[in-house]
């Protein structure tokens, strides 16, 4: 666990965890955040990952719109202990990730100045990555994103409507891979910057903003990257569950996690 964040900043940093998605790409079953990894709900892993940072005083979990009570009950069964003892709030979410984050931000107390936004679907992010994001915000960056270089080459295609799935798609370009990064969460923000971005672009809900830093970019504010971590991958498809179980098994074997 990092001790980089001084105690004085602890009271001003909060994490918002959007956890209101269905997990359609994971296949049928409970909402994704409530599914178990090594016997513990994915959301609990994500909450612990945020609370593991000494800088994080409050974690706001954004639950499915009709599931806030169920999520509160679930989290009560996994109390935070020791270094992880942050305050926990649960609020109902919305129809899109952007709307869910906006509802989470609305629940933050007025004295919070630094906000992390972290997908429940990235349950295994290491605390050193969390602390690196927080440290960069505290050093003055208004928006900080953990990111990794790509391993696949990426092709660009033209926007198409009505094409059948699996139909061959014409390629229109190949962006230079060395200039691309795959971005993760937690993304960290100066609270006023993130509030302004969500307020200004609320009307654009569902129109292509796939992360919060993207809204800050649209504001014209600078966004910087810090190194991400391969264990911060997003559990999206069934194979990702296999990888997550393998990571947890390796952690147990290495250090009794
Ligand atoms: N209306 C929504 C949609 C998504 N999310 C959250 O945003 C994060 C990233 O979304 P994603 O991985 O796409 O999750 P789902 O939307 O659940 O997945 P899918 O698109 O496969 O249904 C997840 O923690 C998810 O719970 C949310 O809080 N509210
Ligand atoms: C925020 C994010 O995790 C950054 O990679 C990602 O954009 C979320 O996308 P999703 O389609 O909602 O999973």
From TrEMBL:
Keyword Nucleotidyltransferase listed: yes
CDD domains documented for this protein: CDP-ME_synthetase (cd02516)
Q: Please name the top-level EC class of this enzyme.
A: transferase
Recorded catalytic activity of this chain's protein: 2-C-methyl-D-erythritol 4-phosphate + CTP + H(+) = 4-CDP-2-C-methyl-D-erythritol + diphosphate
Residues flagged as site, Positions MEP for the nucleophilic attack? 177, 234
Site positions for Transition state stabilizer, renumbered to this chain?
A: 25, 32
**UniProt superkingdom:** Bacteria
The EC number(s) given in the record are 2.7.7.60
A Pfam family the protein falls into: IspD
InterPro entries, per this entry? IspD, IspD/TarI, IspD/TarI_cytidylyltransf_bact, ISPD_synthase_CS, Nucleotide-diphossugar_trans
Q: In which pathway does it act?
A: Isoprenoid biosynthesis; isopentenyl diphosphate biosynthesis via DXP pathway; isopentenyl diphosphate from 1-deoxy-D-xylulose 5-phosphate: step 2/6
**Assigned protein family:** Belongs to the IspD/TarI cytidylyltransferase family. IspD subfamily.
Its biological purpose: Catalyzes the formation of 4-diphosphocytidyl-2-C-methyl-D-erythritol from CTP and 2-C-methyl-D-erythritol 4-phosphate (MEP).
Q: What is this protein called?
A: 2-C-methyl-D-erythritol 4-phosphate cytidylyltransferase
Originating species: Streptomyces stramineus
């Amino acid at each position: 666990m990092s001790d980089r964040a001084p105690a004085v900043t602890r009271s001003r940093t909060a994490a918002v965890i959007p956890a209101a998605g269905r997990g359609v790409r994971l296949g049928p079953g409970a909402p994704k955040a409530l599914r178990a990894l090594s016997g513990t709900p994915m959301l609990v892993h994500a909450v612990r990952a945020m609370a593991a940072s000494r800088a994080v005083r409050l974690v706001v979990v954004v639950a499915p719109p009709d599931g806030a009570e169920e999520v509160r009950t679930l989290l009560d069964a996994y109390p935070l202990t020791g270094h992880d003892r942050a305050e926990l709030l649960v609020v109902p979410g919305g129809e899109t990730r952007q709307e869910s984050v906006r509802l989470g931000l609305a629940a933050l107390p007025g004295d919070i100045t630094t906000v992390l936004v972290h997908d429940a679907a990235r349950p295994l992010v290491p605390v050193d990555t969390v602390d690196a994001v927080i440290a960069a915000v505290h050093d003055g960056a208004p928006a900080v994103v953990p990111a990794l270089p790509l391993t696949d080459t990426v092709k660009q295609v033209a926007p198409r409507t009505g094409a059948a799935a699996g139909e061959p798609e014409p390629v229109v370009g190949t962006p230079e891979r060395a200039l691309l990064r795959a971005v993760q969460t937690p993304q960290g923000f100066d609270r006023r910057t993130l509030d302004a971005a969500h307020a200004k672009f609320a009307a654009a809900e569902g129109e292509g903003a796939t992360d919060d830093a993207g809204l800050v970019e649209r504001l014209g504010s600078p966004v910087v990257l810090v190194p991400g971590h391969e264990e911060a991958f997003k559990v999206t498809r069934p194979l990702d569950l296999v990888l997550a179980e393998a990571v947890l098994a390796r952690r147990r074997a290495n250090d009794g996690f």
